[in-house]
Design a protein that fits this description.
By secondary structure, the protein is an all-beta fold. It is built from no helices and eleven strands. Strands 2, 4, 5, 6, 9, 10 and 11 form a seven-stranded mixed β-sheet that branches. It has a four-stranded antiparallel β-sheet with strand order 1-3-8-7, with no helix packed on it. Strand 9 and strand 10 form a beta hairpin. The chain is elongated. The mean pLDDT is about 100.
Length: about 120
């Protein structure tokens, strides 16, 4: 019904950069807030960054100044530019959106399947 597909994960050395992308499709009328969550092994999922429909952004303190979130409404996509990566950034990164469904105007949310980011020497 609503699909989120992430890309851009991989292995990178400490201090390196990576750019994640997420494209949404399916039964979507309007997308509200879009965000990137991450989950490291044995830890709870946490919000890394989010961006509203009017481009207001919010970042976790741990990524502030290093990560930049952006969106392209025409492409129904959200991006996460990750710079100065640290081993502590290693996690599965999940795309998340709040949306209104086209078929019945229901407000709901949706998750991607995740993309693995590994920061290691």
């Amino acid at each position: 019904q609503v699909q989120l597909v992430e890309s851009g994960g991989g292995l990178v050395q400490p201090g390196g950069s990576l750019r994640l992308a997420c494209a949404a499709s399916g039964d979507i009328y309007t997308i509200y807030t879009m965000g990137w969550y991450r989950q490291a092994p044995g830890k709870q999922r946490e919000l890394a960054a989010s961006i509203t429909s009017i481009d207001n952004t919010n970042y976790a303190d741990s990524v502030k100044g290093r990560f930049t979130i952006s969106r392209d409404n025409a492409k129904k996509s959200v991006y996460l530019q990750m710079n100065s990566l640290k081993p502590e950034d290693t996690a599965v990164y999940y795309c998340h959106i709040d949306l209104m469904r086209y078929s019945d105007f229901e407000v709901m949310d949706s998750w991607g399947k995740g993309t693995l980011v590994t920061v290691s020497s």
